[in-house]
Amino acid sequence: MYNRRHFLAGATAAGLAAPAILRAEGGIFRDFPFSLGVAAGDPASDGFVIWTRLAPEPMAPHGGMPLASIPVDWEVASDTGFRDVVAKGTELARPELGHSVHVEVAGLQADRPYYYRFTAGGERSLRGRARTLPMPGAKVDALKFGVAGCQHYESGFYGAYRHLAREELAFVYHYGDFIYEYQQDYLYDDGLPIRPVRRYAQRALIDLSDFRNAYAQTLLDIDQQAARSVHAFLSSFDDHEIRNDWVSDIDNWKLGLDTNDPDAPPPEVFMLKKQAAMQAWYEHMPVRRSMLPRGGMVALNRELRYGDLMSMQLLDTRQYRDDQPCQDGFKPACPGVYDKNAQVLGKAQEEWLNRNLGAGGATWNTLAQQVTMMSLDRRRKPDEPEKILNLDSWAGYEAPRDRMLARMGGLRNVVVLTGDEHQNFCGDLIRQDKVVGAEFVGTSISSGGDGSDQRNGTDEWLKLNPELKFANDQRGYMVCEVGREAWQTHFMVVDKVTTPVNILSKRATGVVENGRAGITMA
């Protein structure tokens, strides 16, 4: 068992000179070691993951920590005062994993809140809160959860997360783009250059230390810490955790570049970068050990069952996808869009999904994923002659998209949750003139800046896509209220992100009725 004396002795034995780690007043760490907060994730009916990372100097090499494993005590209690501790233990924060800690707590009661905290070297972390799920198959009449993502640090403050922290939610699905891999000298508002609201520390991310610093800088935001401390997160990733529009082992380092160009990074070089990026992602997310990267790959897809009310499949639309057709971008379709052998999920993940969808008899079948499934005409000007597709979405892969819609056609109550677009919109998923599901696309926490109620040309865009029911260009998050008779998705928006404090409002609500595919606006 570790105590303060053993810790100091072990630290000295590991080669920790006092000036490097000791506070002047005799403490163990030079500064508060839990500077990046705490988080919980991947809830189950008997527990969840709890996370922290020791980083007394977050932007310093190794977070200001020694190259030694450090014991971290953890506690889970049924009350905020920790008078009733129901689980506890000690976990080693290892330098190989950036001194991050992932504890898989089990043996808890179903469908109730718990509180957790960490202690290391006499220092105590922020208190966290997370809720267990109902038992699988248990009768459940209501669920409320959040959906958020896309948080470019330079584009704005994370005030939306403080509002999200005040919501009463069972969990939050984060669809990715937790960090962005580049620094920008200018942003744009109405086509005019503006200075970034705040700056990333590095212009580009190359190796593991770079990616660790990007996560550390992001997690120093107290509004984000607030949200992560009170809600369990279902964490995913999209493209900017590594490189814009990457898929599989392909680094689309310049949008529209032919990947056969000799200047394009070869796949083996990109895989080294991807391996570092995926390790840093794991080190900072409250996910289970099964998602520890292996060979640069993360087993991201998984299932969450909320009693008998909802079955949620969390998908990975990046690691197994074929290269974007037509050299990517927003442009008219080329023959590659109709390649019958193209993959978005990859064969193994698609087979896994087909087995899970509809199994267990849940009222609602939910897909939580990254890129838009509707095939939308992206023109916003009446004089553009030819239909334009977003080739980084499912619209660039017509064969797997059609297989997905066909599978939905044999199910009831399919709802797709999506991010990536930095705008709010929702619409019907249609196959052969039949509505087979509903898709809600959530905006960003900050990416895109303040925005406005509607982008230029939105009226034209809605006219060209009758399946669309709503579109909005403000920042915020979605709240999903799921019941037996209906699913409601509320688009919660903030008035601005260029200031730390903002005003929240409910912009619109989309409704899906039980047994009736498609969306109506409340």
Structure description:
The protein is an alpha+beta fold. It folds into two domains: 4-131, Purple acid phosphatase-like, N-terminal (Immunoglobulin-like); 142-521, Purple Acid Phosphatase, chain A, domain 2 (4-Layer Sandwich), CATH 3.60.21. The chain is 17% helix and 29% strand. It has nine helices and 26 strands. The strands form four sheets. The chain has a 17-stranded mixed sheet that branches. Strands 3, 4, 6, 7 and 8 form a five-stranded antiparallel sheet that branches. Strands 11-12 form a two-stranded antiparallel ribbon. α3 (159-166) runs parallel beside α5 (222-230) and α4 (208-219) packs parallel to α6 (267-284). The protein is globular, with a radius of gyration of 23 Å.
Write the layout of secondary structure elements.
Layout: H1 4-13, H2 18-21, E1 38-44, E2 47-53, E3 70-77, E4 85-93, E5 100-105, E6 113-120, E7 123-124, E8 128-131, E9 142-148, H3 159-166, E10 172-174, E11 187-189, E12 192-194, H4 208-219, H5 222-230, E13 232-235, H6 267-284, E14 302-306, E15 310-314, E16 330-331, H7 347-356, E17 364-368, E18 389-390, H8 398-409, E19 414-418, E20 424-431, E21 434-441, E22 451-452, H9 458-464, E23 468-483, E24 486-494, E25 504-513, E26 520-521
Parallel strand pairs: 1-13, 9-10, 10-13, 15-17, 17-19, 19-21
Antiparallel strand pairs: 1-2, 2-5, 3-4, 3-6, 6-7, 6-8, 9-23, 11-12, 14-15, 16-18, 20-21, 20-23, 22-23, 23-24, 24-25, 25-26
Helix pairs in contact: 3-5, 4-6
